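User: Round two. Same drill as before: sequence, then structure, for each protein.

Assistant: Same drill it is. First protein:
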Amino acid sequence: MQIALATACGYLIGSVPVGLIVTRLLRGVDVRDYGSGKTGFTNTLRVLGLRRSLPVFLGDLGKGLVAALLPLLYSDDPWARAAGGLAAVVGHVWPVFAGFRGGRGVLTGAGVLLALDPVACLVAVPFALAVMVATRYMSLASITGCLAAAGAFLAFAALGWHDWAFAAAALLGAALIIALHHDNIDRLRRGAEPKIGRGGERRATA
């Protein structure tokens, strides 16, 4: 029952379309009509610029934090926290409040991992930052960060530093997020992936 409650709450929290709301308020457009068609920070950065997209960064990160911490109010089961966090990522990707068209879940997933184990989460940050600075490809940095986080959470669980539920959440979340980057991976292979801040033009199908 506790896991079911955490899952339901996590999904609803993750479904709050922060990028869509902020872009409509600040520019009066649907961010999904531009760039990648996603509602996450990377696409709102293209559409709004850095300063005006910061609320999206904080909001998407915060959704994951809240979803993974909320179960502590009624449960000490680590699987409830893991389920709530994973559900928030699913909600961000397929939000019930935005026609099931959301983002790729990177920042929401980062918020989840930060809530579950801040140290293990922060181990992945230098890898993602190094790739971002070296290549200016946000997608590649996101994929690298997912892989590094999954490895760190697995290692911490094997060492007994946190519960295996947290490692399972990291692994499943990383697998989902990387799978959702399939189009980015294809463009990276073809040399057609836009770098940070570029590629925010209106979509032909909008």
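Second protein:
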Amino acid sequence: MIQPYVYWRLDTPLAYIVGLYSNIVNGGMLDDPTAYADFKKGPQYNWLVGELRSVAAANSQNSPKRTVLLAVHYPPYSGASNFNVRGNPSQGPSPSASNAPYLAVALQQAFADSGQRPDAIFSAHAHLFQRLTYTFADGTVMPCLVAGCGGHSPLEVLSEQCDGETGASQVAPFPAVPPGSFQFPSGDSAQVEYYEDNMSDDSEFGFLKVTIEARILMGQFIGATSKKILDEFKLDLDNRKYQ
């Protein structure tokens, strides 16, 4: 947090992992909007587009292709009741961020400009667990994981508003909460498939285990106390749909 704009790419035998720095303002952003009124001119944004183009070109030669994973501190999508405020840069304590795009808008534009979508997005920030499915207009899906309950106490409550009021616990699946005036692109949507928060007596901390094998991306959320698999998904990386 005292070394801003540390972003990186890690190449492994099975995956390209792209890590972004967004922990600057409420909702997250890639570049300073006071320096780059057009966010597409920002250095981190252009680096991201370049890296996604690079892995797309490499995957055109790879057999089999490598998985493309994106990691970013702030979640671009969430089912949290307070995300209408917490996901909006203009609502934070930094007035200079009022012109910043929603993080989801900047990321989706980078995917379009590079011609490469990640197979999954991993984030944290909120001290709970959520698995969201982003569904594109073409029917393909992209898991978006918010894994922030590895040990920081206490767990957050998904239904808690910014004013401290808490609504009823929701039963998944349910639609993601759009921040501010954000609107999904035509035909796209996102919904929460599973979450773990501090609403029930049996809620617990946990960790996310990710496995890549035979062009299948599998994610398992495992309870730290129970050692049970509390949530699981399998994504076919070739057709980008759940098994």
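The radius of gyration is 17 Å.

User: Perfect.
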